[in-house]
Structure to design on (668 residues):
């Protein structure tokens, strides 16, 4: 087995795409400017040269129409990976995703499958303004029949993309564009990270920080700061939002008796509320404090450099929140 | 257009008969309270469905819209399982999870019924894309009503299908003539700004045909040509089939038409009641029966014998559905994920 090498998150996902397209001819890519252009974030670079226009397909700016076509193609034998250029534009494929892709297995009584991946880039921090900065992953977690993954590291991104492509149902794959240049070790061989498996990213005993996507980095930074205050924080990454690995989250909280949930999407009716409620239901008798949560502010993400950062929780704020819980000031 | 041969025209008529009696049975089951839902009846459009489905091969793929029973039965899918699905039974095509609005049957290439108006256009176009990349010589057909032309997805599908020369036949069943509201020749003026739907796909270079949807000859000719063009790699085709709306499907007509009386095809004096004009002028089944006899393809007695057989077959489907078990409660979560 080859040693892991440091790869960027972008390259790690790309490695999974190359690998899956080589091992299975039915895998195709669809999206805007993903072909010869290689993607607006260089996230599909090189695929067109190897697999050609028949498998790396530039669509018109018709997200709804093109995604409907991806669903129909998936029902009849292809495995499309459909790229929505910005996570905000997921709204344009919602009908096909919610009313077709997510329900076809169920409403056909299991006779048809829709093996497709919808991948999209989200995340506050690129000064892109209100229509290009949202993290709308919580929308999709509300729909039975959709699996939703949100990898936080290059290695997880590679393994989860492979798992998503091999899954027989629709999987939404959320990448934070601010992670694209993050580098860490990625195994060279073929592997999958199972969908539905959380991972403890840092062990600790005083408090659990449950963090998703880019917020895992924020939580790890907070854990460092907390350590300097003699507080031992455990960082748990669900990695998959649906189906949620409740057991791993709850086991951690039973051990630490406290938890903060951190997510980059909006707070209202969002991921943090769902996870906080789930953990509380399962670990109420072990808790020494209410489970609290940090998320994007409930405002359209502003453009200006002085305003945009205010919408997202940072490591300092998370550290204060966690320390207050541990010291009983909550 | 050459007239249809005996075998083909009788085969279309058989599909139409089965559809008609199936739909009459559905109406009766609803009246009896055997199922509770809203449902959509295909009566009046049988010549379109029957003739298009006659023109397809066994490996061709089909997606349809909420007015789907005719396409399911016309395709030759098992009426027992179709009726069972409408009654929400475990033995239905979809185990009772889809109901009238979502019947599908992979064994007959019947991919999906989308109850979101226009939704099937994307799926049919995608199925055609799959056929093209796999280099399979089949076609995909998407049936939808005239209302679907109000949906953006349909227009997007036209563009991509034309751009990629996909083997897809869009069959727009325009049943708006006779529907409520001000209209001009089947184009409701309060809803659409166009006076001809074919202008829309034609703008993308899609080959378009308009046919009388109650004329099985004309529909079969158009469908056969469309399928040939698709198999030939010439790209998508749009067929607009006009029918005059069956009075029973309009909320302004609370009375449903009485059960079909086939002999009235030859004996107009048997036609009476509030829907007499429709039965005389626009009922595709009576028209087909009349034409089959006139062309010498069948005697009246032969058609009446077929009519009787179809009634018996549908009665058996009804009994099968009523006698079938409901889905077991513990299966409610089955198939959420593939």
């Amino acid at each position: 087995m080859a040693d892991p090498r440091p790869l960027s998150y972008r390259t790690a996902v790309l490695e999974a795409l190359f690998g899956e397209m080589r091992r299975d001819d039915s895998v195709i890519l669809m999206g805007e400017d993903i072909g010869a252009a290689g993607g607006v974030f260089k996230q599909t670079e090189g695929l067109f040269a190897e697999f050609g226009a028949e498998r790396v397909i530039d669509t018109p700016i018709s997200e709804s129409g093109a995604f409907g076509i991806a669903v129909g193609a998936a029902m009849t034998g292809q495995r499309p990976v459909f790229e929505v250029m910005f996570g905000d534009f997921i709204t344009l494929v919602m009908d096909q995703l919610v009313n077709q892709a997510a329900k076809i297995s169920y409403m056909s009584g299991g006779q048809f499958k829709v093996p497709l991946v919808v991948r999209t880039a989200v995340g506050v921090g690129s000064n892109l303004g209100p229509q290009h900065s949202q993290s709308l992953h919580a929308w999709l977690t509300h729909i039975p029949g959709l699996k939703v993954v949100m990898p936080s590291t290059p290695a997880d991104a590679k393994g989860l993309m492979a798992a998503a492509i091999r899954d027989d149902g629709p999987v939404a794959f959320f990448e934070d564009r601010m992670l694209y240049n993050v580098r860490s070790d990625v195994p060279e061989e073929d592997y999958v990270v199972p969908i539905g498996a959380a991972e403890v990213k840092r062990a600790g005993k005083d408090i659990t920080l449950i963090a998703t996507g880019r917020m895992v980095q924020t939580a790890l930074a907070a854990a460092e700061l907390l350590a300097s205050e003699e507080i031992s924080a455990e960082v748990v990454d669900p990695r998959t939002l649906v189906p949620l690995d409740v057991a791993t989250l709850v086991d951690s909280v039973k051990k630490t008796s406290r938890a903060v949930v951190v997510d980059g999407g909006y707070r209202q009716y969002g991921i943090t509320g769902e996870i906080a409620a789930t953990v509380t239901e399962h670990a109420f008798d072990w808790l020494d404090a209410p489970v609290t949560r940090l998320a994007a502010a409930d405002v359209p993400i502003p453009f200006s450099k002085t305003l945009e950062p205010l919408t997202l929780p940072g490591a300092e704020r998370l550290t204060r929140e966690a320390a207050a819980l541990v010291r009983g000031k909550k | 257009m050459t007239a249809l041969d005996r075998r083909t025209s009788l085969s279309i008529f058989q599909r139409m008969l089965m559809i008609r009696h199936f739909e009459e049975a559905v109406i009766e089951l609803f009246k009896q309270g055997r199922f509770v839902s809203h449902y959509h009846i295909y009566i009046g459009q049988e010549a379109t469905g029957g003739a298009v489905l006659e023109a397809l091969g066994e490996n061709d793929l089909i997606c349809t819209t909420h007015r789907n029973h005719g396409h399911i039965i016309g395709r030759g899918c098992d009426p027992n399982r179709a009726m069972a699905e409408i009654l929400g039974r475990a033995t239905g095509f979809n185990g009772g999870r889809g109901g009238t609005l979502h019947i599908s049957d992979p064994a007959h290439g019947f991919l999906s019924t989308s109850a979101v108006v226009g939704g099937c256009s994307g799926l049919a176009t995608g199925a055609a894309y799959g056929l093209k990349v796999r280099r399979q010589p089949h076609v995909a057909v998407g049936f939808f009503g005239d209302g679907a032309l109000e949906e953006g997805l349909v227009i997007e599908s036209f563009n991509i299908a034309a751009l990629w020369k996909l083997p897809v036949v869009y069959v727009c069943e325009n049943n708006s003539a006779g529907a409520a509201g001000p209209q001009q020749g089947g184009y409701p003026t309060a809803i659409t700004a166009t006076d001809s739907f074919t202008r829309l796909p034609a703008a993308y270079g899609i080959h378009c045909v308009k046919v009388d949807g109650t004329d099985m000859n004309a529909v079969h000719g158009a469908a056969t040509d469309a399928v040939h063009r698709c198999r030939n790699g010439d790209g998508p085709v749009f067929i607009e089939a006009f029918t005059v709306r069956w009075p029973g499907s309009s909320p302004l007509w609370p009375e449903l038409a009485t059960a079909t009386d086939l002999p009235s095809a030859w004996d107009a004096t048997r036609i009476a009641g509030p829907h007499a004009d429709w039965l005389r002028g626009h009922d595709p089944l009576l028209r087909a029966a009349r034409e089959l006899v006139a062309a010498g393809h069948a005697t009246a007695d032969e058609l009446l014998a077929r009519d009787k057989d179809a009634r018996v077959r549908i009665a058996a489907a009804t009994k099968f559905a009523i006698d079938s078990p409901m889905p077991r409660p513990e299966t409610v979560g089955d198939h959420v994920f593939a």
